[in-house]
Sequence to fold (381 residues):
Amino acid sequence: MKPPSAPQTWQTVFGTFKLSRYPAQNGDKQLAWSAADDLLLDEVARLDVSGSQVLVVNDPHGALCVALQPAALWTDSALSALALKHNAHINHRIETPVVWSTDSPLSAKIEAPNVIVLRVPKHLSFFEHQLTILARELPVGTTVLAAGMDKHLSSHTATILERCIGPTQRFPGRRKARLFSAQIAARPADEGLPRAAYYCEPIKDSLQSLPNVFSKDKLDRGSRLLMEQFPTLASARTVIDLACGNGVLGLTAFKLGLARALVFCDESAMAVRSAQLNATQCFPEDVHKFSFHHGDGLRMYSGELAELILCNPPFHLDHTVDACLGSHLLQHCGQRLSPDGRLCLVGNRHLNYGDELAHTFNRVEKIASNSKFNVFLAHKY
Ligand SMILES: C[S@@+](CC[C@H](N)C(=O)[O-])C[C@H]1O[C@@H](n2cnc3c(N)ncnc32)[C@H](O)[C@@H]1O
Fold:
């Protein structure tokens, strides 16, 4: 397993901390915090609120939580929760309670916070979703501080804050980062949250996705090429849909009779919940054949060994594009396969998955390709 990156020192108004990224990417060059985090901390210090009055939202490597020691972290990401655990430990800080994005931000039984400290996420639909829930569940007057790096922020960030939260103050940019402060003006009507969906031809049903899920409204082209190979694969008792997103690969394998039992796994809480919703919707009679694992790949998976793992690995996490993310995921696969187990994976042609798989698998075949993707079948023995 790739270790967290070597810790680097971060000086803030709340003290000096050593922070690592998890998983480590591109050596140790990237930092586990950004100038957007500095803006947020400086504003919390100016408002003079204590950590117990703060809810942190989206904290990629736990930097804000280590510094602020807030009441809770509300996040979609199991990787962020692992980064926070590690960084809290090395700094001898209290481990902030984690509330998943699929639960109410107040479900950690915390008092309603006075200040929300939020890193603007990549997907605007997820940002809007989070703001709508915050406005619905927190008292009118609660302050929402939101920040991001200029290169990642949309020109609509302030407008979205204004629409979902209330009057918004725009602060001058500093070190290529920007801060906004908004006050919850009114409680929005409880209308239920929109879910993206598309019709998936092989399953003959539509698949829904919660806001932070990959390829919410159309089948990804890499996933399509991988699915086209399913009829050529021998069927398996247990199949793992690794990095499952909305569950499209596993559910298609089940529909085609390739899988008798399925495990869906993703680091995103919304992905795992979407796969769960889709499995129940598409195969209501078979729900006992499906299980779900929210975590860093198969690192903590202790269920049945699989005969087949299906995977369209990630190549970016939030704003970071990095081939290492896929490699990180593959490191756990070998130990979770039965002796005759296989991994079937699709990857962008420019990423060298063939060589990478050859290090850990006995035999690797390229079974399909097109102008953009390769599909590999790797045999454990
Ligand atoms: C390219 S998408 C594939 C989604 C889905 N299988 C599909 O074909 O539409 C990659 C997925 O990997 C997930 N992911 C990224 N890093 C992960 C990790 N360390 N462990 C588990 N899932 C991860 C992302 O949340 C995302 O859902």
